Structure formats: C-alpha cells, structure tokens
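Structure representation.

___
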Amino acid sequence: MRFPALYLALLLTTTAAAKPQAPNPISPTRSRSLETELLRAVREVGFDQVRDWRHKGERIAHMPNVDVAVIELDAEGRPVAAANVLLSRDYPKGRAVPIEARTLGTKAVRFTKWDLERWDGKKGWADAPAEDDLVPRRTKAPMRFMAPYPASLFKILIAYRVLRLVDRGELTLDTPYRFMRDTEDKGERRLRGWLEPMIVESDNGSTEALVKLLHERGAMEGLNAEYAALGLGTLQVNGTSPVTGRNWQPGSIHMTALDTAKLFLLIEGGPGVLWRTPEGREVKATELSEASRTFLKRLLADQGYAEGLSSTLVCGDANARPGLPVAVPARWLAEDGAATVGSTAFKRDTRPCNAVAEVEFLHKTGQTENYGSDAGIVRALPGKEPRHYVIAFLSNLGYRYYDEGVASTANFEDEENGFPGTVTAIGFTQSIAELGRHIDEAIKRRGLVKQ
C-alpha cells in the first residue's frame, strides 16, 4: 500500500499532539517535500541497470534492496526535516517510510535480517519467519524490508560504544591495549591507535582488537540494549568472537538507514532534544561527551574512501559519475594527486575534483562482494552554497555489481581477481555516487534553515 503525503502529515501531527512537550523543529511540510525529492532521486539513477558478476554480467535479476535516509539540519544542527525511502523487488519504484516527528523513527516497517539465499532465490522471498525480525512485534507492519548487511559501516557502532566507555571513565584514549588474537600477539597500542585506523582506513585488524576489548570489558553484551534504549533498535552487533574479535556475519550484524542517520545526528551534536524514544526519553547530543564527539568527527572527516556516495577517488575516469562534491583528505594524496588508502592505490589524479569540492563529508563506508553502504554528516565548505544534513545509504550493491562501462573487464573464470572493481578500482556501481549528487543538489536548492 502507498503512504501518501497526507498520511505522513497526520502521523506527524497526531504523534506530536499526543503529549504536551517542547516545540519540535521538525516541519511536516518540509519533510513531505524532502520525501518527494528523495523518491525522485532514487528513481532517477537506474539501480535496475547494474550488472551482476555472479550471473555472468547479466542485468541484476531484481531491483536491489536500497535503504536511504536523509535528515536535514538547520545551521546549528537541529533536525528540521526527515525522509526515508526503501527500494526493493517489493517496491520497485521506491516507497517512502512514514516517520514520526517526535521519535524520528517508524513502526511501519517490518525489518528482517539479511539472508543471501533468500535474495539469490534459493529460499522464498516473502516467507521470512518471525525470528528473522530485527525489532519484535512488527509482523503486521504495512511494509517489509530485508535489511542489507552494513559491511564496514558497522565499525561506527564499535567506535561509539568504545567512546561511551571513555566517557564513563572506564578507559581513556591513551589507555594501552595489547591485542591477543587468540594466541597471536598483534601488539600493543593506545586506544586512539586502534580507533583511528578502524575509521580512517577501515582497518579490520584494529576493529578485531576493539571488538575483543569490548568483550573483555563485558561491553558487547549491552551494546544492542544501549542502542535500543536510544530508540535505535535496528542497530545490532551479534555473534562476534570474544577470542579473535572477528566473526562478522550477514544476518547477525544489522543497521538500517534511518537509525544510522539518527546516530550520526547524535554524533554531529545539535542543541536541545534531537528526538524522543517511544518511551519518552529525550535524546540529546550529551549522550556522547563533546570531547568524544569531536574526536570521532575528526576521524570521520579524515576517512580516506571518498567513494560510495562520492566518486572523488576515481576522479576523471571516463566511467565515474559525479557524486557528493567532496575532496579526498590530503593525508592520503601523493604529489600527483593520486590517493592510496590502506593498501589500495587508486591511481587517478584527484586534484581537479578536490579543487571544486563544495562540502565536507564526515562519513564511513562499507563494502564487500554483496553489500555496499555509506553514511555520514554533510556540511558546506566555506563560501559554498549552504547546506547541512545527515545521509545514510545501505544496499546489497557490493562489488559483485557494476556498470556497463566497465563490463569488458569482467573475468568470470577468476574468482579472486575477476571482478571489474578489482581491475579498475571502481568498486561501487556509480549509480550510488549519482544518487549522492542528486540528493546534494536537492538539499542545496532547498536552502539552509536558520533558527
């Protein structure tokens, strides 16, 4: 069933009126127009045109699962509008999610865990059992969506949890930690020395260390409950190994775009009440100390992978499409403008794209063969058209999927190196970058709200 704009307006109005409370800056009118812009952007980029390496380069068999949310902010960081759109074989033209203004959440979607066999047709598409639900008591929700695995985007959940321990005084950023991966000694670093590479270059070894640290501190057990208490019940990390810090599995680690966007809203740290939980708890930026938020935002700003919703890492490539107009952080660049992030050399001169950047993007990407994600905080650079928003994108569009322009590089006989992304370093379908550009242009046209 389609949820018209009137439904959203009534939902926003009746929810806010149910209990006397401080004025909510969320505008139903502005949210409806943002929803329209987001739907248009999702429909225009041609997600159904990508090619599937696992099917010998044929077009993707079904519309991919795409979950994208945008929270528009005023100049001070207060949320003024929110929209969430789902795309899938159930909603091939996109479907807007009803959002409650008070909670910035929804009860209208039954989110289920990702099941690759279900996606690939080895199981029924619509018969997910109740135990697959991410949030209980949603079996009768009017919408349903199988939430893609977030890949390395989940590292933001680990970073937040570690910094909560810092804020409680259980650790400091300079606390030394020796990582024993089972019986293998991986060395000792200060806590900040594990956090930084986990975020800025998506280092898996550092993530393993911090996951094991959380297990040793008894802090993994309460991670999901902490997010649920913030009204972020779809953010979950399950099944990780207390011995190695690994075992990150689709179907066990979950994120959805709207809850992810709200977490980044908290990290950005606007004034006042950002949202209220269904139980009425006021969620403010003070959930994380200003020092921890500042530290985390610095790492997110230095994150090297300007890809996904952006395409700056492959600047100038004939097969790249303009995305979010961001620059690659200088720390990753050689004198010729080519970026090397971690062990990946991109071999393009990023200087022309860096020179025309319009926004900074404090974000984290995630990618595996079957999943692609990107989420963060967008702010206008000085002198550029003002805009301020949070965006979150999750999908099953990993490097298994690619565009027509790089199709000739596919080698279906080489399981390790035959993917076009391996040959070209264009790991994401450029429809994702194009979506980022469409959304940014729409937000720019809307103008920045000043309180």
